[in-house]
Amino acid sequence: MDIADIRELYQDVILDHNKSPRNFGKPHTHTHTSCGHNPLCGDTFELFCTVDGDVITDIRFEGSGCAISKASASMMTSELKGKTIDEARHLFATFTNAVTSPLDSPVDESLGNLVVLAGVREYPVRVKCATLAWHTMQSALNQSQTASTES
Amino acid sequence: MMYNDTLQTARSFSAEEIRKDFPILSRPVGKNPLVYLDNAATTHKPTHVINSIRSFYESTNSNVHRGVHTLSQLATEQYESARNIVRNFLHASSQQEIVFTRGTTEGLNLLAQSFTNTVVGNGDEILLSGMEHHSNIVPWQMLAQRTGAIMKVIPVLDDGSLDMQTFYAMLTPKTKVISVVHISNSLGTVNPVNEIVKAGHNAGAVVIVDGAQSVAHTKIDVQEIGCDFFVFSGHKLYAPTGIGVLYGKRELLEKLPPYQGGGDMILTVSFEKTEYNELPYKFEAGTPNIEGAIGLAAAIEYLQQFDMESIARHEESLLRYATSLLEQNGVRIIGIAPGKSSIISFVLDGIHPHDVGSLLDRDGIAIRAGHHCTQPVMKRFSVPATNRASFAMYNTMPEVDALVDSLGSIKSLFA
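^ Those are the sequences you sent over. The predicted structure of the assembly is below.
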């Protein structure tokens, strides 16, 4: 196996978030929640946010999925804690754009750590894994009950 | 013979030798040679099949059962000769019992549609197994919704075999249809179809066997199985996609109403009344997939060079070798029924099948990762998805080694 090649997507940071997901587990209280489901692979995540004014003061998730979807959820929650709703929506747009852009287009540096997930571009069938948590977050903030990669 | 090239009779079987007949097997995937272990999804095509289609378009192309001109007559001869090759392959008694379809899915939809209020009515029972492909579930659900019939499911035991004791207990005078898969595409289980047919007939039911996964791996004799209907797809038998076969007992096919209306399925049409064509044309509305039928016949001819027993023995040795290596490496196999076919569903604890599938692909290894269109089976075994390696006659032991080595690297990556 050509490890260097594979680590274009499965980098240490993704494997680490998969193994030890941050902000994992249902909180005692929350103000917004949504459930995200990818019927193609059975990935299911529940997302819980506490919003104070327009600031996301807490964001946690639970559920199961592949390494890409779980790492993406974990990294997303780490990034969004303390951000405003507008900032979260902006990051959603930047992130989904980054993972669906053509292979040779530059990745927006403002994504910080999330840049590693842009490697999913190379695997079109896996893009939905990377974006599942993000769609779930978007629908939680919109107060809708469920998110699906198939909607 | 459909296409005249170098086919032999009683050719001795060697996986290494026959690989040369499949051009795609010599292509690389990335920097690696292709290791194709997704044969339960579809198989590759030998040159003989590819050439048969090319030859049809270069020398014969025309519509069938229509014109009086030379090409149309030649095309009709080839199409009907393909039907006879299929008849012989399935050991059916008459060509009228061989209906060309788009595939297994269309065969099952045809039956479910034509059974509406003829074979199955309000309150009748349809019996399926718990290991059916979605294509052998959804058409019956739709039939149940149309008619008010009831669908019942034969449970699957922990090893992946069918709970036959419960099956017998489920048979009632209301059981009108039993539709079961011959070989499970997600578990590899070989179901005792002869026994199911016998019990089904004693109960007065019509029995359908879904042969999608069996035709390429075991000898099929529909008269010996005794089933009323048998369906399969060409593309899992080294033939093109878009062609399949419905075998049905003549007296039953004759009683059933047509599935689709159109050209070719009629004798006379007026705006007042249509008289349907005889079998099997009654069920073949419209211009058929002529190249598909010819390609399917070529695939059967290719396969019939070999003794089916020797193919089965080779695939069984691949299955045994892979099973023992995977078990030694701590891989959990789902579906361990005695006498199973060369399909291995497995999970690596803590690693999602989609990660496994993507990482194997980087080593040129093609497997299926997902629910295999058998979501009830996934639920039964409490997994969201599995990895599935499925073998064909052209696979080799070194390919099994490549799979096991790559899985070892994936495990260390996730350790």
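The two ends of chain A are 36 Å apart (CA to CA). The CA atoms of residues 22 and 74 of chain A lie 5 Å apart.

Shout if you want it in another format.
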